[in-house]
Each structure stands twice: as C-alpha cells, then as structure tokens.
Amino acid sequence: MTKNIFENSPKPTDKEFFEELFSKEGVKIERIVSYGHTTPELEWYDQRRDEWVIVLKGEAVISFLNEDDVRLQAGDYINIPAHKKHRVSWTKPEEETVWLAVHC
Amino acid sequence: MTKNIFENSPKPTDKEFFEELFSKEGVKIERIVSYGHTTPELEWYDQRRDEWVIVLKGEAVISFLNEDDVRLQAGDYINIPAHKKHRVSWTKPEEETVWLAVHC
C-alpha cells in the first residue's frame, strides 16, 4: 500500500530515470533519479505546466536562461513556472540524486 | 529563490504546523510538521480531494476506517483518495515528523 521513494532505484545507466508516482487531471507527481546526468548542452526545458520540484537526496544545479544558477541540496525546493526555460546543468556524480516533481 | 523543507521548522507547540508551499487551481502542496501530534480520538479526516503524502523525516501511523493501520517512515508515500476516512493515530514523539502533502 505504501512505497518508498528511496528504494528500488534503478542501477545507474546512461539515461536519467523517470517514474510516475501519481497522476490525475492535469497533475503528475514524478520521481526522478539522476546519476550525474545533465540536460544535454544547449538544450532547454520549456514546459507547458509549472513544475514544483524538491531534491530529496544528492545535489543538483538548475540553470535558467539569463539568470543565476540555482543549487539544490537535500530538502531544497523551487517552483519552475511554465515556459521558464531551464536545464539541469549538474547533478552529483558519485551518488544518486532523487527528485520529487509535481507538474501542474 | 529556493527554500528548504527541513529548515525553519516551528518550535514544538500543542498544535500541528501546516504551511502552504504552492497552490494553483485545485492543487495545494503543503508542509506539515508534527511533534507527536495525532488526530483527536474519534475524529476522521474526510477530504474532498485526494491527498498524496510522503513522510520525509520522522515516523507516523495513519489509521483507516475498517482497514489496517499504515506505518510511514522517511521516504514512504501513500495516496489517500478523496473521502477515504483516515486519521493520524501516531507520530514520533521525540522528534519532528515532516510531511509533504499534495492535495489535488
């Protein structure tokens, strides 16, 4: 009935891991696991929904177009408004970074 | 620009702490901090929206009407469908329990 967000992480591969935990009418809750992954150079996310995101383990840097980078450590959260261009420019290479994202 | 869900917790009081972190058209993301708090005896939550909830620190037990209790430790998450009667029957008394809830 319950699951644990830190368990059953996939083995490190060359791709970031995305898992839908819950979804409903315009809302999606997602687990993301990164192992040093970043958004490919010169690519920007430009999402149609807001993304409220928290890092629960590990560490990451999100870059925004024409703005300062934002570093996220365990427990840090941020809202990325729809269509705000951003990319993940760094995640901790030696361990997994676990994100919880709410797209709405 | 970022905040940390484990920081700036209120001092323990006789009331549970609720803080809205983000909200938008039918979605509310909330931080809850419990210090041994429970739902008053014989009271049941009967909510009009689903509540997807994860314990990020501490430990808790949720009781459901006519069902087994569910114990949640750090990282454990569960979805409580709208109108499913439930109560928080126990939270760890010696330390804070930090919950992240998405109501949608």
From TrEMBL, chains A, B:
Q: Where is the Cupin type-2 domain?
A: 46-102
| Superkingdom to which the source organism belongs | Bacteria
Taken from the record, one Pfam family name reads: Cupin_2
Please identify the protein, giving its name as recorded. Answer: Cupin domain-containing protein
Species this protein is from: Sulfurimonas crateris
Lineage of the organism:
Bacteria, Pseudomonadati, Campylobacterota, Epsilonproteobacteria, Campylobacterales
